[in-house]
Amino acid sequence: MTDPDLDAKGAQAQEAERQKREKQQQNETPQPNGLDFDPPPDFDDRAPPHDDEPGEGVSLADFWAYMPMHNYIFAPSRQLWPASSVNARIPPVPLLDAHGRPKLDKNGEPVTVRASAWLDKNRPVEQMTWAPGEPMIIHDRLTDEGGWITRKGVNCFNLYRPPSIRRVTSAKAGKWIKHILRFTPTTIPISFATSRIGYSAPMKKLTTLSSSAAIKGLARTPCSSL
Is the full-model pTM beyond 0.85? Predict the structure, then answer.
């Protein structure tokens, strides 16, 4: 036979554990409030595979809030816009409730916030830098003269823009190969290697002397010889 007192204590322990788990889940889930600005229904935050892909017009997703100067980076051109210009081009952003529905005021009208305020809350960056090989938004790191500083919850905007490469078939590379044969016949493998490295890994320095010489030789070539 089982002891009723032990069964009651076991049930109480299970109930206490269940309440504890529910409380932890509630603490981990962000609670909606008047300052949490959810993305509008038509907001597209997907980054293009390449930064040189053509875009269209001006949208909310084109901007990042640069907090040190309280300006806004227009990502396609990397230029800074004042808040007044952002708000003039981007309509107010509707606030959404926990279920993704527009919040309404007492008159039944949608509650909105200025585009600049939405960007301050949702797309801030604490720093700008030039970092070839890194993504446009570098998360959880800041840069200093001595290197990178790890700091969770911060963003660094990378001003570096990858080169725009127009891919063609190998048959169209003939005149460029002849050009290299003419001016740097002894460093052809190195010239090709440095070209590949410079495109695929721009953050790496090329320290080989012959590689540098090959590049300098090409740089001195007059345009009339091409």
Answer: no
